[in-house]
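Feature request disguised as a bug: please show the residue count (231) next to Alpha/beta fold hydrolase in the output. Example input:
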Amino acid sequence: MDILLIAGLWLDGSAWDDVVPRLTELGHRPVPLTLPGQGDGAASATLDDQVAAVVAAVDAAPGKPLVVGHSAAVSLAWAAADARPEKVAGVAMIGGFPAGDGRAYADFLPVHEGWMPFPGWEPFEGPDAADLDDDARKRFAAAALPVPEAVVKGVVRLTDERRFEVPVTLVCPEFTPAQAREWIAAGDSPELARVTRLDCVDIDSGHWPMLTSPFPLALLLAGVADLHADT
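Example output, currently without the count:
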């Protein structure tokens, strides 16, 4: 199965470099995506541009792909399921909850001169970054890509309620499946509350398991893909 991989803010397709070989060994076709505005200097790139790129990757897949979104990019994966509910085998959401229709994509950190730069580690102290040592933090910060303002302030648009019939696996890194279900039951994620088939699975990592736990993450994603291979 094709597995489309979408990394979160400040990352591009290279974030999956340690996950891709393992997924290939496990018999799948990983497709890490680098989207408009990710390292190409295109400050004019918009959220709609990024959604369109993900939908185009879905359309290009020979069968129904598993669409994987990480952190804020779970909203991109979910938008693809909304745009192509009949063509997406499942969505895996790593460490994030999708924004609902009419909500801003990721407008929660300062923007400077048209870009949202990586803010440093202070906002992520605690479970998010506990498994990143000093060297890993320095490498991450040095490679972090600023995100265009029109992406982070873009408004999510969801129009097809058939998206709720697409199976969703919520991968829980810095929080537990029990916590995730509590938050959803409390109304913190109206989108996931309406999903017909929602699985919450644990992974022992911080917020960036593709960097700190690539082999366990690959095994988990391969298992999800295998589960939906015949859908």
